[in-house]
Write a structure and sequence with these properties.
There is one protein chain. With 287 residues, the chain is α+β, with helices and mostly antiparallel strands. The chain folds into two domains: 94 residues; 137 residues, Immunoglobulin-like. The chain has six helices and ten strands, in the order ααααββββββββββαα. It has a five-stranded mixed sheet. Strand 6 and strand 7 form a beta hairpin. Helix 1 runs antiparallel to helix 2. The radius of gyration is 29 Å and the shape is elongated.
Amino acid sequence: MKRFWCAFFMFWPIVAVILCWIAPGQNWWFPRGPSGTGAAMSPLGERIDDLFYMILMITSVTFVGTQVALGYVLFTGARRSDTSHDAEGAEKTWFTHGSHNLEVMWSIVPAAVLLFIALYQMEVWAEYRVKDKFPEEVRKGPQAEVTARQFEWRIRYPGLDENGNPLELMPDPQPTDLYTVNDLHLTSGEPVMIWLRSEDVQHSFFLPELRVKQDAVPGLVIPVWFEATKSTEYSLLCAELCGWGHYKMKARLVAEREEDRLVWLQELQAAQNDDGVPDAGDASDDE
């Protein structure tokens, strides 16, 4: 019976390793994007995935090693305590107060691994969060301001000038600004930036296919940049439990060519400025 429980506790780690091995091929790994796979849909997301796989390799080797050691100890202990051995043939139990060298080793090795991970990811983290490292394209200003509130995403765009070109997005709302709710339209194929705010509690701006995740903190205006490599629609979610209606904070990011986005802004401006009263010329035409 002792050997049964040893095998039982060793069976589940083996199952876990097998499932993790086949997960990428079954698209169980990352959120399935517009490409139909779990591949990141942004250059920065690809680098974040590389960091994930690097950490996964380290933890997998550690996990397999400790499980092998655990299995050896369990089966060895079961064999040593087997009552089928006679008194002369049975192995005696031995006691130890530990090994100073082993304790030093298993303190230094994990610390070294964690230090390696911290240093290895600094470049990616700096590129994503340090303003001086932002791509040159996004330093000209944000394309939109996203304000999280219970329980929706309110999005503010700069208006258009007389030539149909977007104005500069100002920190404070302007009479010419355009607004949508849960519908974020940005340019694809190039780095873009938004200003992220929260109107009430802490939310989390999450684009799973692009590997973008940033908390929206009340009282702060946080610049967030990313690049969608494909012109399509992506999920925009809240990844922070923000109240009873948290589940409703599902929106979309529409990444499209700049010319298509300008056409959409012009349509949004016309709809927002429409007072519902037909022009005199339109009324005479109807008559």
